[in-house]
Amino acid sequence: MPVVISDTSPVRALAHLGRLDWLRALFGEVLVPPAVTAELASPPGTLKPVDVSQWSFLLIRSPSDLRRVLELRSVLDAGESEAIALAEELHAELILVDELAGREVARQCGLTILGTLGILVRAKQARLCPSVAPLLERLQKELNFFISSDVRDAILRQAGE
Asked: Mind listing the pLDDT tens digit for each residue in 20-57?
């Protein structure tokens, strides 16, 4: 199985949709650093907490290079910083991250990136769901998940919708 690391947003979004199990179906195990676990457990505003320990395929793993984490913290939040540092350390095949700044830094680090919307497309391709469009609607309306019209169109095209 490939090494896959996740930041907070993809786990939160899939948990909200009741589809965290898609991570196991698509990737087997997914590593989450402690800062991501903390962000999921204590979300801002009215978001519901997500307890990573309830999901056996979500494994908590700490990056060992704390200097690298601190370096990344100068431009990113704690979860993104630990996720990218861990992905670099483990030569991860994939990092799951949505936020633009995190995606840009991960790209600059040579990491392969997949966001929540890409996960939804993969889930449809794997026949885990019949349609992506209603899931996009829920993310936008219920989580205020930003999806530009161009990205929405591209995702629906990729999903064959």
From this structure: 999 999 999 999 999 999 999 998 888 899 999 999 99
What does DSSP say about strands 113-114 and 30-32: parallel, antiparallel, or unpaired? unpaired
User: Could you tell me the fold of the domain covering 4-128?
Assistant: Rossmann fold (3.40.50)
Q: pLDDT tens, 100-113?
A: 999 999 999 999 99
The CA dihedral of 124, 129, 133, 137, to the nearest 10 degrees, is -130
- 């939804």: which residue's tokens? 120
Contacts of 32 (CB under 8 A, 6+ apart): 5, 6, 11, 40, 52, 58, 59, 60, 61, 83
**Domain extents in the chain:** 4-128
Residue with token string 């431009």? 75
Which residues contact residue 9 at a Cβ distance below 8 angstroms, ignoring those fewer than 6 apart?
Answer: 97, 98, 99, 115, 116
